[in-house]
Amino acid sequence: MELRHKAPRITLFSLKTVQMRTFHLTWLSFFLCFFGWFGIAPLMAVVRDDLGLTKGEIGNTIIASVAITVVVRLLIGPLCDKIGPRRTYTGLLALGSIPVMSIGLADSYETFLLFRLAIGAIGASFVITQYHTSVMFAPNVVGTANATTAGWGNLGGGVTQMVMPLVFAGILMFGVGETLGWRLAMVVPGLVLLGAAAFYWMFTTDAPDGDFKDLRARGELPEAKGEGSATRGFLAAAKDVRVWALFLVYGACFGVELTINNIAAIYFYDTFDLSLATAGIIAGLFGLMNIFARTLGGVFSDRFAGRAGLKGRVTFLFLVLLLEGLALILFSQMSVLIVAIGAMVVFSLFTQMSEGATFGVVPFINRRALGAVAGIVGAGGNAGAVAAGFLFKSESLTYQEGLLYLGMAVVVCSFFALAVRFSPETAADEKRRFDDAMAERNAAAPVGVPAE
């Protein structure tokens, strides 16, 4: 898929162009999806007492919240290829708000599990976020654009840990009991998702030159059937071993982040005997690193590409994922609160840089099947979270032991990044695209102002 007029620079404080409006609305929508997706996580200590949940049952709800996203992410990528990211995102935001607001109706373990399963579908918003910025930004900045929008969206996971206990506390101030309070608290993120759906529809387009429907009518984009069919693209992506290598890699970074988002608050609450609010604030630090950490992964991916092409992107991905695994092993061994917090912050830095580096590679695997590649790799993140979830539902393993084994798995998965290779022809073609984008960027720079 070849689209024209991709932006060769990110003008962060501008909303004049559709590229930058899309940039800001993608990360904001993904941020709000995290509120709906993990809004219940920092309240789980209250929910556990209300519904009488066991550790195993809590583990099952954690697995449910990320398991369904594997399937939806596989479907959502080809859907973006077919109907465009604007319609896909708007529909997901609107439909996703329903189970978020309705989870308060749960009155048993079984109904709570079903609602968490349904809410997990909004986690597919990540694929649309990465797809939309990939079609809006040129090769010289696409890694940075993808990493920043995803990172600022992931920031919602950290902010949620801090804000939802405050929302809950605010509701209790009106004399509402805890049993009703957590249920009412979840209405807030649901309403916000509905508002985001309206904004996304009004202020974005599928591509720089318009919606896919209009581009196809003008003959500027292949029809979503035959040569350009989503099914054909998905099959091509599914046959590519590099896609599955990145599937495993993303499971080892984003899957780990999802797992920490689900267990961090209750881990600090139980292990260090903290209050719910304090545990939430500490747990939120992990997600707050997304304000810059994932962007760093994308920036360095683009920098490595400028010096060593696509091979540079892959090498950086391997290195930062390996460091993530080692940092996680270190974090798992911490028993003093302040030291554990510091180790968690370092571990979070490498985790989120790995995520940014992964999607610094994804846009170059198969341009004609971008949605399918993004969907499969994105699903890997949730598949990793599902696998990790089994470690933390086991009654025979402590959280510390689960984290140790998870860190070892990340170290092993880092070597799969080295399986991502490109032909000399593809590497040369992408170098030309990169150089052309840099030339366009430099030509557009004001006189006397460096382009970099």
Automatic annotation (TrEMBL):
Gene Ontology molecular function: nitrate transmembrane transporter activity
Occurrences of domain Major facilitator superfamily (MFS) profile (ranges): 22-427
Transcription regulation as UniProt keyword: no
Domain of life: Bacteria
Membrane topology listed for this record: Multi-pass membrane protein
GO CC aspect terms: membrane
Main subcellular location of this protein, as a coarse class: membrane
SUPFAM superfamilies in the record: MFS general substrate transporter
Keyword terms: Membrane, Nitrate assimilation, Transmembrane, Transmembrane helix
InterPro entries to which the protein is assigned, alphabetical: MFS, MFS_dom, MFS_trans_sf, NO3_transporter
Transmembrane portions of the chain: 25-46, 58-76, 88-106, 152-174, 180-203, 243-268, 274-293, 314-331, 337-362, 369-392, 404-423
Entry similarity comment: Belongs to the major facilitator superfamily. Nitrate/nitrite porter (TC 2.A.1.8) family.
PANTHER family the UniProt entry points to: HIGH-AFFINITY NITRATE TRANSPORTER 2.3 (PTHR23515)
UniProt protein name: Nitrate/nitrite transporter
Annotated organism of origin: Caenispirillum salinarum AK4
